[in-house]
Amino acid sequence: MKTVIHRKPDDSWIVKSATVSQESDGKFYISVLFEVADSINTYVADTNNCIGLDYASDGLYVDNNGNVGTNHKYYRESHGKLAKAQRKLSRRQGSKKHEAKSNNYIKQLRKVNKIHHHRYVIVVERYILR
């Protein structure tokens, strides 16, 4: 199974719990909680590697070097694709109340949820993390 491990646990760490969750687009995620011994390495930021960000009304941000962040419209670009997928979903057996949901309806619903998830992730990655 493909995994992303951002920090390897030490031998002294004790596993307290593991939570498995499934997103609406069908992907599974696991969150593991460890109990750590009393000494934790503290990270001190390198002041030579830091930048300052400021809000810019014409763009997204301006950093202390004068670089301007782009204000790309990812959300609006995927609007047409989402609308088409939702139209296909509305024509499937199971879109009406009290109607049995077909397998094709469930597959199309996952596609719609995947587009929603992708739109949200791109917005978060592009605007908050950078």
Describe the model.
With 130 residues, this protein is α+β, with helices and mostly antiparallel strands. The chain has one domain. Helices cover 32% and strands 18% of the residues. It contains three helices and four strands; from the N terminus they run ββββααα. The strands form two sheets. Strands 1-2 form a two-stranded antiparallel sheet. Strands 3-4 form a two-stranded antiparallel ribbon. The longest helix has 25 residues. It is flat, with a radius of gyration of 22 Å. The two termini are 29 Å apart.
Largest sheet: 2 strands, antiparallel
Regions with little confidence, pLDDT below 50 for 5+ residues: none
Major sheet: order of its strands?
1-2
What's the helix-strand series? EEEEHHH
Overall tally of domains: 1
Number of strands: 4
What percentage of the residues does DSSP assign to strands (E)? 15-25%
| Termini gap | 29 Å
- What is the 3D form? flat
Short structural description:
By secondary structure, this protein is of the alpha+beta class.
